[in-house]
Amino acid sequence: MTYAGTYELKFSIASRTILSKRLAVIHWPAFQRATWENFTQRLPTPPQDDIDGYVVHSLEADGTLPPTSTRDGKILYVAETYPRYLTRFEGSFEDFLSGMSGKSRSTLRRKVRKFAKADGGTDIEDINWRQYQTPAEIAEFLDLAAPLAKRTYQARLFDGALPDDDAFRQEALQLAGAGRVRAYLLFLEGEAVAYLYTPLEEQTFLYAYLGFDEAHAALSPGTVLQYLVHERLFEEKPADWFDFTEGEGAHKSQFANRRYDCATVICLENSLRNRLLVLLHRLWNGAIEGLKKLAEKLNLTARIRKAFR
Q: In this structure, are 78 and 103 located in the same domain?
């Protein structure tokens, strides 16, 4: 979704921001819309004059990109690079599994059986899990998932748990009314232990929120739920893709059957002020990366992290 907003160009140490420059930008998702070679010609027209530039998300790019470059009167700054993983719903679920290594298939099935046995069953058909789709069902999902979300590592370590506020609830109910969301819960002894919330956009389910109860981490509830959801989606094929969105993740690479190299690119007017800002940010990040490598070499990483906490 294209929208006007802000972007914080942060100067950070160990995830702690020392200072930042807030930019007024147009956020533009470029995935499968543009490539590194042509994206500057496809940028949307700013809706107002007081815009500093653009932040282009998930721009597909093969090979190594130059950290900074200029084009069409803009300075292009590659803020980060990462993979983007997706599942394409082609063929059967068994076809999908056959694309994995034998070890991965065996590990997944073992985890599913282990979870089933922990809940008093023997195999996958004994697992208690549910899909939520209609407005009434989504309302029930949110009521059951809210207390679970507080017990996830996403809630403990960063602000990544399923939201529990009126604005998100209204948005979820509106999506449900339009048939544009599915959500899932996995139960153990009648208690919800994992959730997955997936809005639907342009024949693609988006990996928005996944969480599980840390107390049951040994049973891999998040992986089990992802397995069950993928099996259901391959059977029904209500969409073409499942998009794990930006970034690495063991579960993403495990389930995805497509991988794209992408980048987030900041596009600013090619002015002296912006060139200096980008240069300072690059020098800062380079210095921090050098210090991290030195700390690792001297076995000081754990001590430094403890000091910053």
A: no
